[in-house]
Design goal:
mainly alpha; elongated
């Protein structure tokens, strides 16, 4: 995977996590919508200064933005986990507590098998 695609994947992940439109994300990153679209297609050719700017706005190290440190499947798992957490947060407290109890039981099962 190339540097441009790594950057595209990281920006797309941020967009998906925050459930933002292109316009909202371009405003947050302080870049034009068309520039953002180019980056998302892996077609942009940002300067190092722009990479640093984007990384700062995204609150990540520039190396993370360019390196693709997470595999796409890991990113999908993280997105699923974040969506699950968001859904759990919307449950009433009694159901959240029940989920926590069941989750703890599941973890204890794993520990006993080792």
């Amino acid at each position: 995977m190339g540097i441009q695609q790594n950057m595209a994947d990281k920006i797309r992940l941020m967009k998906d996590q925050r459930q933002q439109s292109l316009s909202e994300l371009s405003e947050e990153l302080e870049i034009s919508r068309s520039t953002l679209q180019g980056y998302l297609r892996g077609q942009g050719n940002p300067s190092l200064e722009m990479v640093e700017h984007l990384a700062k706005k995204m609150k990540v190290d520039p190396i993370v933005l360019l390196s693709g440190m997470l595999e796409p499947t890991q990113e999908k798992v993280l997105l699923l986990l974040l969506e699950t957490i968001r859904e759990l947060a919307s449950l009433p407290e009694d159901k959240r507590l029940r989920f926590a109890e069941l989750f703890l039981n599941m973890i204890q099962l794993w520990e006993t098998e080792e």
